[in-house]
Amino acid sequence: MAEFDVVTPPVKAAGGKPGTTTGKALSVVGLRKTYGDVVAVDEASMEIAAGEFVTFLGASGSGKTTTLMMIAGFCEPDSGTITVGGRDVTRLAPQKRGLGFVFQQYLLFPHMTVGENVAFPLTLRGVPKHEIRRRVGETLEIAGLSGFGGRRPRELSGGQQQRVALCRALVYRPPVILMDEPLGALDKKLRDQLQVEIKAIQQELGLTVIYVTHDQEEALVLSDRIAVMRNGLIEQFDTPRELFERPKTPFVADFLGAANFLHGRVERHTDAHTLVRLDTTGSLLTARRHDLATGAVVKVAVQPGRLHAGAPSDGFCQGTVETATYVGTIVRAGVRVDGGDAPLLRLEVPAGRGPVGGERVGITVDPDDVNLYPAEQDG
Ligand SMILES: Nc1ncnc2c1ncn2[C@@H]1O[C@H](COP(=O)(O)OP(=O)(O)OP(=O)(O)O)[C@@H](O)[C@H]1O
Question: What percent of the chain has pLDDT over 90?
């Protein structure tokens, strides 16, 4: 195979700008997979729009990879259907689904040059040589790899190799690209950099991407929507903002934001608010209006960044700052609340305005930032 000396002009938006693509790229209905007694994926359903960046996020063993592998065609579902661009692909072989893949292991062919690796999917499809040369050049340019076409994979860094793997998935413009922890093998700095690059390429080309990670921050940075998975179930499928500000379950509140939890009972409602009598302090906390019965026993969740430390006379509870740790732009504080079993509330406040150890403070929170759940809701 010829080596590629890649010198082509920069390419713009080969697949259209984000927002210009419309319609459903992929839908999954009632997807289920068991291994003996283990339910790896339980009735997963979702619709993904063209141009969307969707992430499967969850702890190890929650079913992310199994879901992705069923979509890819490497793992056969027990039941359910997978549709790509309106075509039922549930029983099709992986190569017949027309999807692109990028895995944690780069899986590049070591004996081929970068250009040949990227060209491979086009060569397989019998694309004419001059067209291959043009598209490989375009794709390497997009990924910032112009000039690397003649190198072998071993002559590249890990980050560069992963970019080549990305190019190989991009080069034939599949309707959907599947990525399984593609940055998992890289160090933090490189991961951060490649996250930005992947997002930029996805937006530039209007790509539809399904991405698997267990890293909350990565999911928040990259995604238009995130499916939070737990024990084979999709716990919530929403935008990063909704997941963070309106988590539907205590599990999601904790998984995305390491929420503070308090316990209490609904005392009464007003038009806009629900008032909760807290167990520990006996004080009233005002939450935005929730659909819960008066007297219901509830779990209260508030993200550390949404609590504020004010004057000791203020707030729904008072306490003493036990720890205050400076971490760059924020201070993480632990406030031991006055009262019975004295919970430790975790706060994150902008550095410079942070409380100091030993200080007496009152804790305030915007009612809109208080999430309530029935006490029996687990997680
Ligand atoms: N081939 C298999 N045989 C038996 N059990 C399996 C198999 N593959 C996955 N499982 C089980 O199915 C469940 C979901 O696994 P899966 O790999 O999808 O999780 P995951 O969220 O991708 O985890 P990780 O982040 O560790 O990759 C786990 O309990 C796992 O042990």
Answer: 60
Q: What is the mean pLDDT of residues 5-25?
A: 41
Ligand 1: centre distance to CA 170 (Å)? 27
Q: For ligand 1, is residue 73 a contact (CB within 6 Å)?
A: no
Least Cα distance to 219 among 252, 188, 185, 256 occurs for: 256
- Please count the other Cβ atoms lying within 10 Å of the Cβ belonging to residue 233: 17
Q: pLDDT-derived band of residue 106, with 50, 70 and 90 as boundaries?
A: low
Atom of ligand 1 nearest to the CA of 232: 14
Mean pLDDT score across all residues of the chain: 87
- Cα(302) to ligand 1 centroid in Å equals 31
Query: In this predicted model, what pLDDT tens digit does every residue of 148-184 receive, in sequence order?
Result: 999 999 999 888 888 898 898 888 888 899 999 888 8
Distance in angstroms (rounded) separating the CA atoms of residues 27 and 81: 8
Residue closest via CA to ligand 1's atom 11 equals 40
Q: Which residue's alpha carbon is at the smallest distance from atom 30 of ligand 1?
A: 61
Kindly state if the Cβ of 65 falls inside 6 Å of ligand 1. Answer: yes
Q: Does the CB atom of residue 38 touch ligand 1 within 6 A?
A: yes
For domain 258-374, which architecture applies?
Beta Barrel (2.40)
Q: Does the ipTM exceed 0.90?
A: yes
Burial, 117: exposed, middle or buried (Cβ in 10 Å; 0-12, 13-18, 19+)? Answer: buried
As a whole number of angstroms, the distance between CA 350 and CA 363 comes to 15
What fold does the segment set 24-245 form as a domain? Answer: Rossmann fold (3.40.50)
